[in-house]
């Protein structure tokens, strides 16, 4: 694959092509007012930590007004910060102060749906069938003589039905409304011009306040077949009733026009889960999104063949449209790498999540360190989920404290996603480990009692800690021109090794099997584990200057 010669990070107007982007889940990052919930004041107080870590941008999961039925992805008002996190002045100050640290800000937009507490939906419930207010959503009469059967049999992404029936003012059963996720998240009708105008105004509202990019949640779900038909067994490409429909692209072209209208163009990053490589790449054409998340790599097992295949596929998908790849090991929905890589099944799939799955945390930590270096050496943008730089494990929480709707809609079989959302440990030997929560108050999710060794304070004093590895890794990545060039060249060192050259003289080698002899080199830049007699041990990655 050809390599573009550059001398450092991408220019300012193309920063998103190779940036290091740190994902912040605000409830769990840092607590600024002592109430047990993370907030924007807590983030502002920790911007120095993020600068020292070496990130280029921070991405916030939703910080808007929300009943938090789905961790903030049920938005009630995009122009109001949820009081649990602060207010609009706090957000504006955070964006400004982060920029002073050289850190850009990305915010989430959730265009497929809103909260059932959103003013539009409350108006729709009050207005009744056939009203303009209901035309912003997907209200339909039920099937059957009394309308007591759902309009269709679509299945929710959270399990169960996608339809909930309303109750009319006189107490009789009314129409049904569509929700591809939870009943608290009614889907918007993107055939309605008012819906389109509102979201374009939302983009401008945040871009005008200095936000550098928008992450688009569930980006392939917005458009629906107006007939809302039953799901065919094998939908034709672009004709699925509610996923990846062709008319989506006009929406994102209009958003790209808005993003490009600013003196410093803003970036659009899509959450696009698709198996079809050509359909995926269509979202990354020059007049649509700038980049999209690479979920396949994140869900692959710890296996050389599987991970190399995912890397090859990802680069192949992006090459025709000239878009940068994105690389990430986890996020606020995915089992943390330290736990996942220590399991017999080290891949990830939502339908396989269960309580009580054993994990060898020492093995998982070793592999997570190797995976971090492997991922950071690949061409494109790197995303880091908060806490992965500390090597935090997934926490199996008591059932009585769980809040995630995925747990409840699975009839209690799925532990949900709360285990990767536990508040971060910053300092000290006891809970809340410097999170900021006042004495006598509990953090919104409980932290384990054995996290003292995982705090930022403890790891900062340990040159062999996960945090020290991440700081060194991101510093080398920033300074090394080869790691800002496009493309890579594979080095064939055996079936249990992923090895490649970046640029003229930088190589990354990840060993999944028996100790591996290293190619001739001038220097070792960084290794996830100590070399043994000059060889790379199993479950390790090394960066070399050739």
Can you describe this structure?
The protein is of the alpha/beta class and 546 residues long. It contains 14 helices and 20 strands. The protein has an eight-stranded parallel sheet. Strands 14-15-16-20-18 form a five-stranded antiparallel sheet. The chain has a three-stranded antiparallel sheet with strand order 6-8-7, with no helix packed on it. 49% of the residues are buried. Mean pLDDT is 95; it is low at 1-7.
Would you summarize the structure shown here?
The protein is α/β, with parallel strands linked by helices and 546 residues long. The protein has 14 helices and 20 strands.
Oligomer: single chain
Provide the spatial order of strands within the biggest beta sheet: 11-10-9-5-2-1-13-12
Number of strands: 20
Radius of gyration: 24 Å
Query: What is the distance, rounded to the nearest whole angstrom, between the alpha carbons of the first and last residues?
Result: 19 Å
- The average pLDDT score comes to 95
Q: Give the % helix.
A: 10-25%
Structural class: alpha/beta
**Low-confidence runs:** 1-7
Q: Largest beta sheet, briefly? A: 8 strands, parallel
User: Proportion of β residues?
Assistant: 15-25%
């Amino acid at each position: 694959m050809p390599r573009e010669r550059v001398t450092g990070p991408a220019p300012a107007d193309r920063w998103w092509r190779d940036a290091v982007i740190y994902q912040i889940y605000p409830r769990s990052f840092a607590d600024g007012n002592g109430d047990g919930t993370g907030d924007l004041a807590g983030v502002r107080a920790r911007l120095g930590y993020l600068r020292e870590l070496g990130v280029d941008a921070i991405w916030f999961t939703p910080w808007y007004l929300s009943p938090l039925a789905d961790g903030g992805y049920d938005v009630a008002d995009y122009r109001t910060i949820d009081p649990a996190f602060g207010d609009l002045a706090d957000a504006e100050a955070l964006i400004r102060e982060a920029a002073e640290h050289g850190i850009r800000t990305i915010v989430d937009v959730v265009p497929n749906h809103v909260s059932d507490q959103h003013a539009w939906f409350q108006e729709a419930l009050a207005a009744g069938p056939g009203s303009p207010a209901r035309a912003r959503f997907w209200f339909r009469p039920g099937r059957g003589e009394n309308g007591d059967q759902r309009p269709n049999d679509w299945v929710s992404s959270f399990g169960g039905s996608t339809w909930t029936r309303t109750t009319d003012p006189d107490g009789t059963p009314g129409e049904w409304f569509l929700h591809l996720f939870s009943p608290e998240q009614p889907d918007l009708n993107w055939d309605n011009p008012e819906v389109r105008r509102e979201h374009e105004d939302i983009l401008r509202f945040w871009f005008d306040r200095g936000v550098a990019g928008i992450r688009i949640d569930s980006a392939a779900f917005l458009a629906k077949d107006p007939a809302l038909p039953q799901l065919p067994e094998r939908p034709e490409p672009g004709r699925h009733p509610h996923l990846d429909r062709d008319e989506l692209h006009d929406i994102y072209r209009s958003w790209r026009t808005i993003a490009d209208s600013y003196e410093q163009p803003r970036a659009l990053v899509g959450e696009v889960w698709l198996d079809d490589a050509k359909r995926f790449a269509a979202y990354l054409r020059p007049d649509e999104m700038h980049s999209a998340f690479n979920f396949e790599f994140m869900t692959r097992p710890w296996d050389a063949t599987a991970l190399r295949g995912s890397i090859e596929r990802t680069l192949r998908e992006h090459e025709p449209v000239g878009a940068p790849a994105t690389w990430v090991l986890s996020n606020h929905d995915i089992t943390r790498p330290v736990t996942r890589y220590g399991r017999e099944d080290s891949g990830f799939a939502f339908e396989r999540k269960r309580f009580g799955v054993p994990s060898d945390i020492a093995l998982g930590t070793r592999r997570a360190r190797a995976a971090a270096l492997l991922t950071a050496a690949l061409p494109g943008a790197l995303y880091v989920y908060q806490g992965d730089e500390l090597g935090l494990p997934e926490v199996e929480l008591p059932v009585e404290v769980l809040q995630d709707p995925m747990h409840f809609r699975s009839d209690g079989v799925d532990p949900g996603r709360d285990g990767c959302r536990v508040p971060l440990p910053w300092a000290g030997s006891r809970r809340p480990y410097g999170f900021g929560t006042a004495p006598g108050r509990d953090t919104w999710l409980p932290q384990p009692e054995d996290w003292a060794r995982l705090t930022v304070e403890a790891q900062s004093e340990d040159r062999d800690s996960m945090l020290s590895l991440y700081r060194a890794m991101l510093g080398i990545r920033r300074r090394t021109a080869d790691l800002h060039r496009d493309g890579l060249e594979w080095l064939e060192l055996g079936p249990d090794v992923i090895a490649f050259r970046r640029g003229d003289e930088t190589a990354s080698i990840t060993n999944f099997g028996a100790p591996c002899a290293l190619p001739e080199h001038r220097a070792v830049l960084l290794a996830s584990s100590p070399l043994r007699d000059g060889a790379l041990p199993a479950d390790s990655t090394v960066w070399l200057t050739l």
